[in-house]
Specification:
The protein is an alpha+beta fold and 206 residues long. The protein is 27% helix and 23% strand. A hairpin with a 3-residue loop joins strand 6 and strand 7. Helix 3 crosses helix 5.
Length: 206
């Protein structure tokens, strides 16, 4: 038993409270390919006891080999906090794509479902698109611009993280279709070539 050295447990899953279990599981299925691996309702009688859970149902979902990456807890009277930006709590969660083409393809696919991102940006270390789920939680899908977590870490440690370069996703997609390499796109994004016509103000959602 190690009692002296700090171990590094890996993030396995997180839990979200919702009043809209169906809508949330469906959104995460469409956007992230999440599968419901288990879903249960809590009998009303069980919730009425002092030891009963505060939620009426829950669902375990995942989009990889793990049995669950997210647990949704349904509380029927839960409401979205209209002033959540000024409160402590989870700011956003991120999911990594293996390639830029996976990221751009995901954008095009779910745009076809009527789901559009809040904004997109090249942070230097990665290219990121951000969406809001039905409960206004912010979900980031990104790709590591360097293709290596070690190189990305060194980039950050050298103090290169700064103001992100905002991106119009359509411009990025079109440039990729014309044959620009992922690294070329990164350089052009940082040069503001793909800037949106109307810049997004992150302070409105973050």
């Amino acid at each position: 038993m190690n009692t002296e050295i700090t171990v590094h447990p890996k993030l396995a899953h997180y839990g979200l409270v919702t009043a809209n279990l169906d809508g949330m599981t469906e959104w995460y299925r469409k956007v992230l390919g999440m599968t419901v691996n288990h879903r249960s309702k809590i009998p009303v009688i069980a919730r009425m006891t002092h030891q009963g859970p505060p939620f009426s149902a829950f669902a375990f979902v995942s989009n990889d080999e793990m049995d669950h990456r997210i647990v949704f807890f349904e509380i029927p009277k839960a409401v979205v906090d209209p002033d959540k930006r000024h409160h402590t709590g989870l700011q956003h969660v991120a999911f990594e794509c293996a390639t830029l083409d996976d990221l751009l393809g995901t954008y095009v696919r779910i745009k076809g479902l009527g789901i559009t991102p809040l904004w997109a940006a090249d942070h230097g270390v990665g290219t990121s698109f951000y969406w809001q789920d039905p409960d206004r939680n912010v979900v980031e899908i990104y790709v590591n611009n360097f293709g290596s977590p070690w190189t990305a870490t060194e980039f950050l440690r050298l103090g290169h993280a700064g103001i992100p370069a905002q991106i119009d996703p359509e411009k990025l997609v079109e440039a990729r279709k014309t044959g620009a390499s992922p690294w070329e796109l990164h350089e052009r994004a940082m040069a503001k070539e793909f800037a949106p016509a109307e810049p997004f103000d992150p302070r409105t959602h973050f």
